[in-house]
Automatic annotation (TrEMBL):
Pfam families attached to this UniProt entry: BPD_transp_2 (PF02653)
GO cellular component: plasma membrane
Family annotation (PANTHER family): HIGH-AFFINITY BRANCHED-CHAIN AMINO ACID TRANSPORT SYSTEM PERMEASE, HIGH-AFFINITY BRANCHED-CHAIN AMINO ACID TRANSPORT SYSTEM PERMEASE PROTEIN LIVM
Subcellular localization, as worded in the UniProt entry: Cell membrane
Keywords: Cell membrane, Membrane, Transmembrane, Transmembrane helix
MF terms (GO), sorted A to Z: branched-chain amino acid transmembrane transporter activity
Protein name per the record: Branched-chain amino acid transport system permease protein
Length: 611
């Protein structure tokens, strides 16, 4: 590790402050939305991407000067924010409190895919609209773009302060953030306030996207996810709903990242952000700029999932479906069998997540990390240690159960939005550790030449062999989960989900039972990841990404939270049906997002009903 010189430290400090200003516009928008709607908006980074591409298009096709470019971004992104609130979230008023959060995830998928379809996934260079000279200061340098970003950040903060402090609508926003029920009783139009806040927050997010494109001279549709995460990290540092705190948290995050790059290199940049996120959630969940250190109350009792009568499938019908699935290889169609293999592997993941999210009530947005742990465990043991695949796969399940539970255990004390944010951060940490721990995981190179599936001398590397193995394992995991749900353990899990306070008063230890749920879920997910690794023969840190976690969540909502058969059905439908319309392959993520939105709006209990 080479220590930078004094001039380099000045440049890193300037870079940290500049990036912190960009994060501030993201985080302030998130803080405003959380303040009035009690919602963490996971679509915020997608609006940031929209702003970046609107700015690029205005400069490239219209030749607009910078002030006009910024105005175009503000108008378009403001309208997008209004649309998100009016069409995506307002119809969910009165729904379960988790529904708007899930809706923002669906909206993010839709916006990202629309941008990609319009502009293509290829990166774009944003033309520079400011001079490129640098002023030497104290051994370092500072440029006009640095000053511009700092000036826009300060101007935005000043305008926002004036709006909230001196305008009637700003007073209404503050009153709604303090007590929405009381504000409504005093005649405040809550819908108007929400619409205004989403417009302002989206405009700020769009400006930050444009500035990032100018600063790094590159934009792409995939940068929305990272932007959302960075905004959330800054928000957590400053405190949910705390606008000044969001600005302070953004500057801390920007400087932490910049100094981290100076000391350890670029590949560690995001790792610092997510480690900081988890540390804040554990030790200062209210943020650094709040007077309290305890977790704010966020009751979720009776509001987690939609009540419904689950659809019961007779045992003879279940047996018939298993027999029909077992006869599928007789069709002698490798393409259909491969779709079946993918459906079965996703079915294992969906079973794991429906146990955690549906039965225990812990929404996990980082569940793909369990697949990564399982895949790397089995792959490394088979490649580097020379162990038989028949041994490495169950060991991968056990290791994933233990390590996954250990990683998420500190988050068990959290509730509501905090659980989703924590699991998302943990998932990203796992991916970044895999990327940077090259001595163990082979780093960015990934694992190549993973041995094919083989059990006790029988080659299962063919699509037929893999299908049989996956079907047997899925049936066994489903039977185990059904047995657990009908036991005292299952009743305890549901008690924690429905009312954790009441469950604790009856002696049900929440942390212990949550750990058991994550352990059983992690075992199934680890096996799925292991089989996937041996089937692909190559995996890297991007194989099991965050989109996979969202897809798994869509599957379990489609089937019905907590419903074992529903999880398998949801996985089969979302994996098999798009293959029937292969011409629509490029629209797959868009379809997933729309399905998630429609389910939350019209069928939150899923096709099979919640259990």
């Amino acid at each position: 590790m080479n220590m930078p010189g004094l001039g380099a430290w000045f440049d890193y400090t300037v870079n940290g402050i500049v990036i912190g200003n960009i994060y501030a516009m993201l985080a302030v928008g998130l803080a405003l939305i959380y303040g009035v709607a009690n919602l963490v908006n996971f679509a915020h980074g997608s609006v940031y991407v929209v702003g970046a591409y609107v700015g690029w298009a205005a400069i490239t096709y219209l030749g607009t000067p910078l002030p006009v470019t910024i105005l175009c971004v503000v108008v378009v992104c403001g309208l997008v924010g209004v649309g998100i609130e009016r069409l995506g979230l307002r119809p969910l008023h009165g729904s379960s409190r988790i529904a708007p959060l899930l809706a923002t995830i669906g909206i993010a998928l839709v916006l990202d895919q629309v941008v990609q379809l319009i502009f293509s996934p290829d990166p774009r260079a944003v033309p520079m609209q400011v001079p490129e000279w640098r002023i030497p200061i104290g051994g370092g340098t500072i440029g006009p773009l640095d000053l511009l970003i700092g000036g826009i950040g300060l101007a935005s903060a000043a305008v926002l302060y004036g709006f909230l402090r001196f305008t009637k609508l700003g007073w209404a926003v503050r009153a709604t953030a303090q007590d929405s029920d009381a504000a409504q009783q005093m005649g405040v139009d809550i819908n108007k306030v929400n619409m205004a806040v989403f417009a302002i927050a989206s405009a700020l997010s769009g400006i930050s996207g444009l500035l990032v494109g100018m600063y790094y001279n590159q934009i792409n549709p995939a940068m929305s996810f990272e932007a959302t995460l960075k905004g959330i990290v800054a928000l957590i540092i400053g405190g949910l709903g705390n606008v000044p705190g969001a600005i302070g948290g953004s500057l801390i995050l920007g400087l932490t990242e910049s100094y981290g790059i100076a000391l350890f290199g670029t590949s560690y940049r995001n790792l610092f952000a997510f480690v900081l996120l988890i540390a804040m959630l554990l030790w200062r969940p209210n943020g650094l700029f709040s007077g309290r250190s305890s977790l704010p109350p966020e009751p979720m009792t009776g509001t987690f999932i939609a009540r419904s009568r689950p659809f019961r499938i007779p045992p003879w019908a279940v047996a018939g479906l298993i027999v029909a699935a077992a006869l599928l290889p007789l069709l002698n169609n490798p393409y259909v069998l491969q779709i079946g293999v993918n459906s079965l592997l996703y079915g294992m993941l969906a079973l794991s997540l429906t146990l955690v999210a549906g039965t225990v009530g812990q929404i996990s947005l980082g569940h793909a990390a369990l697949l990564a742990i399982g895949g790397y465990t089995s792959g490394l043991l088979a490649m580097d240690a020379g162990w038989p695949v028949a041994v490495t796969i169950p060991i991968a399940g056990i290791v994933t159960a233990g390590l996954g539970t250990l990683l998420v255990f500190p988050a068990f004390r959290l509730t509501g939005h905090y659980v989703s944010i924590a699991t998302l951060g943990i998932g990203e940490i796992v991916s970044l550790v895999i990327l940077n721990w090259s001595g163990l995981t082979h780093g960015a190179i990934g694992l190549g030449g993973i041995p094919p599936l083989e059990v006790f001398g029988y080659d299962l590397g063919s699509v037929e062999g893999t299908y049989w193995l996956c079907l047997v394992i899925l049936v066994l995991l489903a039977l185990l989960q059904l047995r657990l749900l009908s036991s005292h353990l299952g009743r305890s899990w549901r008690a924690i989900r429905d009312d954790s306070v009441a469950a604790r008063s009856y002696g049900v230890s929440g942390n212990r039972y949550k750990a058991l749920a994550f352990g059983f879920g992690g075992f199934g997910a680890g096996i799925s990841g292991a089989i996937t690794a041996h089937s692909y023969s190559y995996i890297n840190h991007e194989t099991f990404n965050a989109t996979l976690s969202v897809l798994a969540l869509t599957m379990v909502i489609l089937g019905g939270l907590g419903n074992v058969m529903g999880a398998v059905l949801g996985a089969t439908l979302l994996i098999a049906l798009p293959e029937a319309f292969r011409g629509l392959a490029e629209y797959r993520i868009l379809i997933y997002g729309l399905v998630l939105l429609l389910l939350i709006r019209f069928r939150p209990q899923g096709l099979m009903g919640t259990v």
